[in-house]
């Protein structure tokens, strides 16, 4: 499999060979994220009205998560980005995930963080149909990470909070450091990269990468 | 220097220590490229008029190369991108360098290639002030590469056509495979990455990377 992408077929082939089971367990699919917003219930109501509920239009790979019909406008000191998708359901805290190029466009410092680690991150103005929210912090560039459930973690000898490396294939192949492991009750097995990381590595949503330690 | 970017100061510090000379020789600056177009004389004249000459507005790091005042529009099957900078001087063959995200936007397949290797690459329509050129091929996503001159190559035991790896630092650090070495008479020492690669690695135009083999 040198010098090309892992495909779903490669994985099928590998999974058929018992002696390559260990290798195949470490080969996992890629999930690619673009810019999006998670909203608290409070902020959703300011932006769209009291008791407003998001309208799911597409389920995402992580169970329970969905892309909603609703979008917002992000306004930074330098410019705005329209039609930014809201990911539901609502969360305890509002979080805006953008690409590094979005940060430059908006006039914000790109700060790479895991989801939920918002201390000291830039703020932004979020504009909805019915109102505006001014955040003091909460804008991150997503730090790459692997999602899996308890059993998948045990099979791979990985636990929540571990940091591993990833090997990718193809003409833009690389070994990526600092990949965080997030083990959750119902995590769907994949590695989350943002769109710029995927493009820089020549990966797409059908690609696979290999966990190395 | 673990876990942060190389800065110009890091390099100065390293260069001051004779016993780290070998390491320091392998630490080189990053040059970041966005989308741009190189034009043949023939195509420049179709796009801007007979005997037209490009107007330099900024010299680039590679000697003799400049950003010109003039821009063009790129039109693909799916959409257009306006205000794309022309890099002068004219070349023997027209070449369009875009980001992977540009390829998706335009509706083209992103094909990663070194400059000048255009066989089998997608075509595109280029629109200028006075005319339009329809290219059958010539659109590439730039393959990362290192520029240096003969003496810098000798010092580092690198020759034209070599392929090395690069180590980067910081929270998005990685080891990049398939980095081509281009030794030229008057090459300026740097490593060319495109804007998406730089963003994905957390690098900027003041960053340094390390050649590893």
Automatic annotation (TrEMBL), chains A, B:
EC number: 2.3.1.222
Cross-referenced InterPro entries: PTAC (IPR008300)
Listed name of the protein: Phosphate propanoyltransferase
Family: Belongs to the PduL family.
Key words, A-Z: Acyltransferase, Metal-binding, Transferase, Zinc
Cofactor(s) listed in the protein's UniProt record: Zn(2+)
Species whose genome carries this gene: Peptoniphilus porci
Domain of life: Bacteria
PANTHER family given in the database record: PHOSPHATE PROPANOYLTRANSFERASE
Pathway: Polyol metabolism; 1,2-propanediol degradation
Reaction catalyzed: propanoyl-CoA + phosphate = propanoyl phosphate + CoA
Pfam families: PTAC
Enzyme class name: transferase
Lineage start: Bacteria, Bacillati, Bacillota, Tissierellia, Tissierellales
Gene Ontology molecular-function annotations: acyltransferase activity, transferring groups other than amino-acyl groups; metal ion binding
GO biological process, one term: 1,2-propanediol catabolic process
Functional description taken from the UniProt entry: Involved in 1,2-propanediol (1,2-PD) degradation by catalyzing the conversion of propanoyl-CoA to propanoyl-phosphate.
